[in-house]
Amino acid sequence: MPIVVRIDVLLAERRMAVGEFAEKVGLTPANVAVLKNGRAKAVRFSTLEAICQVLECQPGDLLQWVPEDATDDAEVLR
C-alpha cells in the first residue's frame, strides 16, 4: 500500500499505550489496529484532527507515501 500510517512509531516515541490513545481519540482499540496495520481505506478529517491533537503532530508526521515498487523495508520506516 503506498500510504503508510505511522501511528505505531508516534505512539512509541511518546510512550503511549494503544488503549490510552484509543480512549483519548475516541476510537476503539480494534479501529486503531486497523489504522496501524494499514487496512484502513479512509480516515475522516475529524478523526485525523483528533489523532494529531492527541499525538501533538501534523498529518504529515502521521502519513507517509511509499512507492509501490519500494522493496526495502527501511524505506518505509524513514
Low-pLDDT parts are none
The appropriate CATH architecture is: Orthogonal Bundle
Strand runs, count: 2
CATH fold name, please? 434 Repressor (Amino-terminal Domain)
Largest sheet, spatial ordering of strands: 1-2
Q: How many individual helices?
A: 6
Distance between the termini: 16 Å
CATH domain class name: Mainly Alpha
**Order of helix and strand elements from N to C terminus:** EHHHHHEH
Based on Cα principal axes, name the global outline: globular
Overall pLDDT metric: 90
Strand content: 5-15%
SS class: mainly alpha
Query: Helical amount among residues, as a percent range?
Result: 55-70%
Total domain modules: 1
* Largest beta-sheet details: 2 strands, antiparallel
CATH superfamily: lambda repressor-like DNA-binding domains
Measured on Cα atoms, how large is the radius of gyration? 12 Å
Question: Overview of this structure, please?
Answer:
It is a single chain. The protein has 6 helices and 2 strands; from the N terminus they run βαααααβα. The longest helix has 11 residues, at 45-55. The chain has a two-stranded antiparallel sheet. The chain is mainly α. It has a single domain (3-67), classed as lambda repressor-like DNA-binding domains (434 Repressor (Amino-terminal Domain)). It is globular. It starts with a strand and ends with a helix.
Draw up the topology in text:
Elements: E1 3-5, H1 7-14, H2 18-25, H3 29-36, H4 45-55, H5 59-62, E2 63-65, H6 73-77
Antiparallel strand pairs: 1-2
